[in-house]
């Protein structure tokens, strides 16, 4: 079972925006986290993340294969070792879902689907995705996003027009994704992986999506957003290459 977009907004930030177009089945709508401030302590974030993790583990079966988990964990630990967020433990759970998806939650929790890992062709690609997720955690995007969503919900309850805030939230989501891409590929490179792995994965996934949706009959907004993101990644990689020369 996969979370709805609304539920993902409430409990975690989607890791890669193009994964967010997958069709999600319904999740329990009466589950809700307590109000959170935009800036919270590590202890408060860990407590918040524990609630999120318990909820996700209630919804999903986890992949228990020890060799598979160890292979993924080895990549994660290499990436985490070069990141700035070393005040909280970062863990990863592999969800038994064929959906190609990944996301992170407060308190150092990363979730990768079995479908995503099977779709990846190299360790460099997995490292790029993991780097993106670790970057979200380092930049505290999940807690910032949750704070904004809760604020929008409160305005809705008050009957306040929230269209402007929703547009701002969408803008922040795109900004978060680009920031996580920029920092994530740097993490991957510092950990000894080819930083081009994330771009390779996203390009192949976009081709897969376009094929699956009748050879290019894909939402124009999604296509434009994804193209902008890929162009941003190419620019970042070009700057990295210049810096190494």
| Portion in beta strands | 5-15%
Overall mean pLDDT: 77
Spatial order of the strands forming the largest sheet: 1-3-4-2
Secondary structure class reads alpha+beta
Q: How many E strands?
A: 4
Distance from N terminus to C terminus (CA atoms, Å) equals 47 Å
Uncertain runs: 1-37
In sequence order, what are the helices and strands, one letter per element?
HEHHEEEHHHHHH
Helix tally equals 9
Largest sheet composition: 4 strands, mixed
Portion in helices: 55-70%
How many structural domains are formed by the residues? 1
Give the overall silhouette. globular
Radius of gyration: 17 Å
How would you describe the overall organization of this protein?
The chain is an alpha+beta fold and 245 residues long. The N and C termini lie far apart (47 Å). The chain has one domain (5-244). The longest helix is centred in the last third of the chain and has 28 residues, at 163-190. The chain has helices spanning 5-11, 42-59, 66-81, 114-119, 123-138, 141-157, 163-190, 197-212, 220-244; strands spanning 13-14, 91-95, 102-105, 109-113. Residues 1-37 have low confidence and may be disordered. The chain is globular, with a radius of gyration of 17 Å. It has nine helices and four strands, in the order H-E-H-H-E-E-E-H-H-H-H-H-H. Strands 1-3-4-2 form a four-stranded mixed beta sheet, with helices on both faces.
Short descriptors:
about 60% helix; globular; about 240 residues; about 5% strand; four-stranded mixed beta sheet; 9 helices; alpha+beta
